[in-house]
Amino acid sequence: MDWREFLFNFRPETGSVSWAERWRSSLTAALAIAVTVGVSYWLLSAPPFVVAAVGASSVLIFALPASPLAQPWSVFGSYVISAAIGVIVARFVPTLPLASGLAVGGAILVMMSLRCLHPPAGAVALFAVIGGEPVRSLGFQYVLSPVAANALLLVALGLAINNLVPGRRYPRLHPEINPHQVRDPEPLSRFGLQHEELRAVIEEYGRPLYISGEELDEIMQIAERRHRRRRYGDLICANIMSRDVVSVRTDTTLLDAWRLMRRHRLTMLVVVDTLNRVEGVVTLEGFIHGAKASTPASLRRRLYQLLRFPLGRNQGVASIMVRTSLRATPDTHIVDLVPAMTRGLHQVPVVDESNRLQGIVTQSDLVAALYHGCLGKA
């Protein structure tokens, strides 16, 4: 490696974070720190009111909220553990340099063992050693105030603020289990790199990662989706959708909607308003829930009552309608519909920019398109 290649490695990687996300991260962190410092100064009885590590923690919680290093247990657990280790080391090791190293090193060992690694907590342990007599005199009270109080407040603000920001979820979601409660993985998970295999790869890698296995799994899914788009070319919903859609209005009676479903052998009807804008869907499952049968034997009778009695006649489909947000546009690539279809959704409405119904893509439409697409690539 020559000197130019060596210096080239010091350049920052190409950024892919939008300016909107940068502003969201900075403003939410600023708000959280302002509240943390203000509330701590107001509630805590004696200084120090705030540990400086909360500034570093706010970077992770509000700029990288999906990182394993930023999760609630990582923040709170690491703060309390590191503070306790720092207090113990400061009490029994008189040499400042040695105590500083042991406090931080011990904190890292325990954090990694308890799966709550959080880098700013190293400063919490160090501050217990080098904070001077005011911190040393607190003893184990330092663990509770300010450390545990600061961590608890910062995590609470992370939960409140991050979940108000569009596109964010805090804490991060764990992989969904099979909704059918069986051991078989979901259909899409049976092909390509499975989650268990990815977890094994991460364990074999053996070094800490800045992102979770779930995030890597999601990245792999995005990469596979891009590959499938390239494989099937420009095959979009407009090419495969059914345009003669059987739909109902919100004031259509349950009996009329039921007759339409029986006549056309459908399991779902799209509900539209007077301008043909999609309001939601009515499903066979919705009728079953609406019947409120307590036993399978009573389902037929309860469904008959729902449809035939005056209450059922005058009750519109809005009473059992599901306001689904899953819709496609005519230029949506068909592979983007595969995840929803494999999870049990039978039809997806296709709408224009004004949410007006243009057509519908059924499981049959999708299977036929994928089948012919495979034949064309064979």
User: Tell me about the biggest sheet?
Assistant: 3 strands, mixed
Distance between the termini: 45 Å
Structural class, judged by helices and strands? mainly alpha
Rg, Cα atoms, Å: 29 Å
Q: What is the number of independent domains? A: 3
Separate helix tally = 17
Question: Which spans of ≥5 residues are poorly predicted at pLDDT below 50?
Answer: none
Q: Quote the average pLDDT.
A: 84
Order of helices and strands: HHHHHHHHHHHEHEEHHHHEEH
Number of strands: 5
| Biggest β-sheet: strands ordered side by side in the sheet | 1-2-3
Helix content: 55-70%
Morphology call? elongated
Could you tell me the strand content as a percent range?
5-15%
Key terms:
3 domains; mainly alpha; 3-stranded mixed sheet; 17 helices; two-stranded antiparallel sheet; CBS-domain
